[in-house]
Amino acid sequence: MRIVQKFGGTSLAGIARVKATAAIVYDAHQQGHQVAVVVSAMSGETSRMHALSKDISTTAEAREVDVLLATGEQASAALLAMELKRLGVDAFSLTGAQAGIRTDSQFGRANIKTVDSKRLVAAMQAGKLAVITGFQGCDEAGNITTLGRGGSDTSAVAIAIAVDADVCDIYTDVDGIYTTDPRIVACAQKIKKISYEEMLEFASLGAKVLQTRSVGLAMKHGMPIHLRSSFDNIAGSMVCKEDKNMETACVTGVPFNRDEAKITLQGIPDQPGIAAGIFAPIAEAGINVDVIVQNISDHGLTDITFTVTRADYTKTMTMMHQHCLNMKAKQVFGSNDVAKVSIIGVGMKSHAGVAQTMFQTLAQAGINIEMITTSEIKVTVVIEETDVDRAVTLLHTAFGLDASTA
Ligand code: ADP
Ligand code: ASP
Ligand code: MG
């Protein structure tokens, strides 16, 4: 088999973990598989370096921030390659650029454009083992770029597709994808098989176990992802094409995201083009808007509330204060301590009253819903961050997702 193995930060946090990871790679290689490895930085390193750049300036030059952040993956790739060499494997490390990963020039959120896989395929066929830095590539001009937080999942899937691997194994600190984050709900259940569509919803609604873009890419190319633990040698969760039997459960998971901030523009003259006017400068600044709610107008005035990530909150607030004057809005206010909790499930299409159960569960617990948005297979609410753990736990029970303790 041809396998791309990706190891996350916890699998590489310190020399003992690097050695344990090398043993997993060594085993696969010994079994005769053609293997390429993609690594993240040791856990905490990317955040530590981010904080260092912020100590220089909160608006540090994005190109330089990427040069700094990319070093984390370089350190773990070199250490893992050294240990594999010590074990007798013909291993060598490669940066994203050396591995042929070309991106656009959006520093901090670059998109992979192409992967030139010739060098990787030749190495694999010769029994050599490339250890590639995830999370990074280089643009046409040769600048180092990074792909956004959690981006080494996307690097791994892109490389797996480029080398035509049979599977992309993503090793992390949990042994699979669970009905919700097992760090919050201990009785969450492992989902052995999940469709790309559902995993895409799961990831985009906040289950950070896989970067959303990695799932989209895998879906487009039909690349199976096996999410598994580097701590226990047991089968994990397969993310793959939909199996018709998967459509039975009504609600399959309760993802959540704490990284939300809410902004309201109040008292804007209600006329055609207001939404376009508000969101155009935000889009131009490359800021993603998530949930949007507009009220019906009262005496020709309306309110719009929307959410952005917390990192974009201050910048968006400044833009909206400026905009408020242009749009003749009465006031702008916001808070960056809200969070998003969702229920998802393809089975929801054919079950009535699912949203009502969610609202009732939250109401009984005295949890205030600030915004609501729905689609065919999900219901999302925005609530105060302090209520998240309670909301997720209660919803997990209300929809029958708790693992039986019997
Ligand atoms: P890595 O550093 O290996 O990329 P991450 O921290 O990015 O690891 O992702 C793994 C973490 O994702 C787990 O430790 C877990 O707390 C979290 N997580 C969130 N939602 C889920 C979920 N539904 N199933 C499994 N893990 C989840
Ligand atoms: N090291 C990067 C991060 O912490 C990329 C990754 O881990 O996937 O976001
Ligand atoms: Mg990750």
Condensed summary:
The chain has helices at residues 15-30, 45-56, 62-86, 118-125, 152-162, 196-204, 212-221, 274-284, 313-327, 354-364, 388-398; strands spanning 2-7, 34-39, 91-94, 101-103, 112-115, 129-133, 136-138, 144-146, 167-172, 177-178, 190-191, 193-195, 225-229, 237-240, 256-269, 292-294, 301-308, 331-344, 371-375, 378-384. The protein is an alpha/beta fold and 406 residues long. The chain has an eight-stranded mixed sheet, with helices on both faces. It has a six-stranded antiparallel sheet with strand order 16-17-15-18-20-19. It has a two-stranded antiparallel ribbon with strand order 4-5.
Keywords:
alpha/beta; 20 strands; VC0802-like; 406 residues; Carbamate kinase; 8-stranded mixed β-sheet; binds adenosine-5'-diphosphate; binds magnesium ion; 6-stranded antiparallel β-sheet; 11 helices; binds aspartic acid
